[in-house]
Amino acid sequence: MRILITAGPTREYLDDVRYLSNASSGRMGYALVEAALKLGHDVVLVTGPVELPPPAGCEVHAVETTGQMRDACVTAFMECDGVIAAAAVCDYRPVRRVTGKIAKTGGPITIDMIETDDVLAELGATKDGRWVVGFALEAENPRERALQKLRAKNCDWIVLNGPAAIGSVANEVELLGATGESLQTWSGTKRNVADKLLGWLHERYAKV
Ligand code: CTP
Questions:
Q1: Helical ranges in the chain per DSSP H
Q2: CA distance 67 to 11
Q3: Distance, CA 144 to ligand 1 centroid (Å)?
Q4: How far apart are CA 114 and CA 109, in angstroms?
Q5: Quick one: which of 76, 99, 146, 155 is 20 to 30 A from 138 by CA?
Q6: CB of 87 closer than 6 A to ligand 1?
Q7: Which ligand 1 atom is nearest residue 73's CA?
């Protein structure tokens, strides 16, 4: 199979030197890439800025902003059999990016923000026969909220994890299907969890 994987954070610029982002390390997404490569799949990695070197053997598209991630994914997805969206995408961006550097005013400032493109929702809406796996990072009512996301973004499966996953080496996840059934729970290092998820997808979708 040819699999699109998103990883890492995005950045949304306030001006030419400052941005909003999050603490995603990219470890989960990169572990998924390695797991998919080990099983012999082709992988397109669309990655936000992270410290990790991209795994050898995949096609890499390095992006910064959510808009760039969206454009790279929409193009790459046309040639893929499925997508796993592990990126921690910024939900909001400043309405405008100031050229140069915002100077201090001596008082508080207000920044108007609008929602970014929802990359996964766009891929889900155009998936046709392709499979779509989302991640959901939830603190409260986790299953209910994860399922809402699965439906809103037209995913086939969603991987539920908690806030402790951000920036950490280990993870504890639950795989949910479209009817809300809990299909699997996996815990351990992100590499272990990635191997389990890819093994599960391979069994289900890989052509023999
Ligand atoms: N996602 C995306 N584009 C966005 C926001 C999220 O592709 N603009 C993807 C993530 O990669 C993940 C899934 O959507 O696979 C859910 O992300 P999450 O941050 O848990 O949910 P949000 O939709 O951002 O909702 P909220 O932050 O309100 O919980």
A1: 27-38, 66-77, 119-125, 142-152, 190-205
A2: 10
A3: 15
A4: 17
A5: 76
A6: yes
A7: 7
Instruction: Enumerate the domain spans of the chain.
Output: 2-205
Assigned token pair, 10? 């995005």
The correct answer on CATH 3.40.50.10300 for the domain covering 2-205 is yes
SS3 readout for 56-83: CCCEEEECCCHHHHHHHHHHHHCCCCEE
Per-residue pLDDT reduced to its tens digit, 49-98 = 999 999 999 999 999 999 999 999 999 999 999 999 999 999 999 999 99
Amino acid residing at 168: S
Count the Cβ atoms, other than its own, within 10 Å of residue 169. 11
Chain centroid, CA 170 distance in Å: 17
Contact between residue 30 and residue 56 where contact means Cβ atoms under 8 Å apart: no
Structure tokens at 113: 């923000």
Both tokens assigned to 110: 């207000």
Chain centroid, CA 80 distance in Å: 16
